[in-house]
């Protein structure tokens, strides 16, 4: 392998970054009575243990995040191995149908969670840091739930796969 030193274009960067496998999270809340969410493969845990912080990067062009961020609490669902279609649906442009057929769990605080996820984190926004064409959003975990028997969804090479093959 040889290092390419010329400034990479965004297509080459996307291709390069896509070789890094990640989990996928759904970040959502009910705002003004409407279920709002975005799907993020930039989500990461373990930013900080004290206080407990997780993060994701949101495109500055997002029209949904400015709505979600008005909520006092947001729900983070780590998407499970059965959630590839659910991810595509929640990430679709057709906002009115993003939750068709999805029986989302709404906490008493208005945080939105996807059923059958291995992890749920209820969070408040800790800070938002400008980062180029994205903002890095730091979320402070205020409550959690998990089911270790459910496997996570993996995003790799721009498509969905699974940690344990076809489970
Ligand atoms: C697998 C996958 C991963 C994504 N990861 C991110 C992400 O990390 N950050 C982001 O801003 N959007 C991400 N998106 C796009 C958003 O989920 C969503 O489609 C976009 O925010 C929709 O635009 P809107 O915010 O204007 O409604 C991802 C979409 C998919 C399908």
Describe the structure.
- The protein has 167 residues and is mainly beta.
- The protein contains 3 helices and 12 strands; from the N terminus they run αβββββαβαββββββ.
- A 7-stranded antiparallel β-sheet has the order 3-2-6-9-10-5-4. A 3-stranded antiparallel β-sheet has the order 1-11-12, with no helix packed on it. It has a two-stranded antiparallel ribbon with strand order 7-8.
- The model has no long low-confidence stretch (mean pLDDT 95).
- Flavin mononucleotide binds at residues 24, 38-42, 56-59, 62-65, 87, 91, 155.
- The site of flavin mononucleotide has 17 residues, from strand 3 and strand 5.
CATH T-level topology: Pnp Oxidase, Chain A
Straight-line distance between termini: 34 Å
Strand content: 35-45%
Q: Please tell me the CATH architecture by its name.
A: Roll
Across the major sheet, the strand order is: 3-2-6-9-10-5-4
* pLDDT < 50 stretches: none
Fourth-tier CATH superfamily name: Electron Transport, Fmn-binding Protein, Chain A
Can you give the mean pLDDT? 95
Number of helices: 3
Large-scale geometry: globular
Estimate percent helicity: 10-25%
Sheet of most strands: 7 strands, antiparallel
The small molecules bound here are: flavin mononucleotide
Query: What is the CATH first-level class name?
Result: Mainly Beta
Number of domains: 1
* Record field, number of beta strands: 12
Which structural class do you get from the secondary structure elements?
Answer: mainly beta
């Amino acid at each position: 392998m040889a290092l390419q030193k010329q400034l990479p274009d965004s297509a080459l960067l996307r291709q390069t970054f896509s070789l890094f496998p990640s989990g996928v999270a759904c970040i959502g809340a009910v705002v003004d009575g409407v279920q709002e969410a975005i799907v993020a493969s930039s989500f990461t845990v373990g930013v900080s243990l004290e206080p407990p912080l997780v993060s994701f990067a949101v495109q500055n062009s997002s029209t949904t995040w400015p709505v979600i961020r008005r909520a006092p609490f947001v729900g983070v669902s780590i998407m499970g191995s059965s959630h590839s279609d659910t991810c595509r649906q929640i990430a679709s442009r057709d906002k009115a149908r993003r939750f068709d057929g999805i029986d989302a769990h709404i906490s008493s605080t208005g945080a939105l969670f996807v059923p059958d996820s291995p992890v749920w984190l209820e969070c408040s926004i800790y800070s938002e840091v400008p980062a180029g064409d994205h903002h890095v959003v730091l979320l402070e975990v205020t409550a959690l739930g998990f089911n270790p028997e459910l496997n996570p969804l993996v995003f790799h090479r721009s498509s969905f796969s699974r940690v344990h093959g076809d489970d």
